Amino acid sequence: MKTHKHAFNIILTVLFLIFAQLGAQKKFVIVLDAGHGGSDVGATRKYENIGLVQEKDVTLGIVLKLGRMLEKNKDYKIIYTRKIDEYPSLADRTDLANRSHADLFISVHCNASTKSTPYGTETYVQGPDQNKTNLEVAKRENDVIFLDDKDRERFASYDPTSPESLIALRIQQSKYLESSLIFGGYVEENFVKKDKRYSRGVMQKNLHVLRLNAMPSVLIETGFISNAEEAAYLASDKGQDEIAESIYDAITSYKKRIDRNQKKIVEEPKELPLKNDFRILLMSTPNKYVVGDPALKGLNYILTIKENGLYKYYYSVTNFASIKENNLKTAKDAGFRNATAVSFIPNQDMNTGYYRLEVYTGKDKLPSSSPILKLLKDVERVKANGIFYYTYGNVKSLEAATKLQKDLEEKGITNTTIEKVYK
């Protein structure tokens, strides 16, 4: 009898440990990263009225205040990359976040300019950007890698402007980008509405401290140390408290959104599909962009349809109302404020026109040795305003056009555009 009782107690203990572990795993893990530290002071300015203001001190002050707020909530598990004036390598910061299976990574920084007039907040999410002007912040942050041997080894061969690095970044970060945009939107909205500050927006940059993270990640520039008024605000307890509280509220909103989505999956009855498909129209422009272009702001699943000389860029497709609304919000959070949902009737044939593929556009005429001309028959060529347009195919429905597009991709002909032609 004692043997059975002992065995039963062991089973109870094991079950308790399992459920305790499961309960622990349900915590929302947040990694808080106070930018710079130690010998890397970051941005710094000295003012007569407030003295020396250093980025490493401001970021640590904000992170510690934010951490204390979060630690009061039992649903959160908080991990710090540093809690004192030291310099963790960029590799250590991202490795810590990945090892911890974090749900969210927040890196806090301060901005600076060679001029004293710029001010306001910015939140960055990871995203390739080949524009030299837009890479200035990334270059400033990336300079830090030369302070640490581990970072030098990890990042020495990384060139943020090379196509190979950009492709790798897009693949690695695409599944976290949209969540990062959502959270970044909450942060900047709070800075404006709660703290009455000027927001410079949510942007994408190639930042080393974000690019290796396997979770939604943001880098928050809390203000300009080079601006005397903002420097005083950033160095003050009042300013740091307000910034920490705004980020805290953004985390709360983001967590509620995640919980709400999970609850819907469990509790809501199965949603019935709509009769039509819905795509989110991001913009109409005479400019042609390829997948991954910064103009598309990191969004994936883009369908481009040329119509009446304009390229229309549609994001995602669904026949569920809830997903349509989520897609619309994602597009607006990414910066497409005028985005709108457009209805498409599935498998609808055009009565007075057809679809074809624009397989090449350029100032130069394709040579007869071009793979496009060799692989495809009946390619049509038109020259307008000094640009050659090569088109192929004649199908009645959008679905047939997308299938034709995939067929060409399998043959190695990529970056084609579906064109809607009216007779």
TrEMBL record:
The keyword Cell cycle does not apply. Residues 94-252 form the MurNAc-LAA domain. InterPro entries: MurNAc-LAA_cat, N-acetylmuramoyl_amidase_3. GO terms for biological process: peptidoglycan catabolic process. GO terms for molecular function: N-acetylmuramoyl-L-alanine amidase activity. One of its GO terms (cellular component) is outer membrane-bounded periplasmic space. Keywords: Hydrolase. The keyword Hydrolase applies. This is MurNAc-LAA domain-containing protein. It comes from bioreactor metagenome.
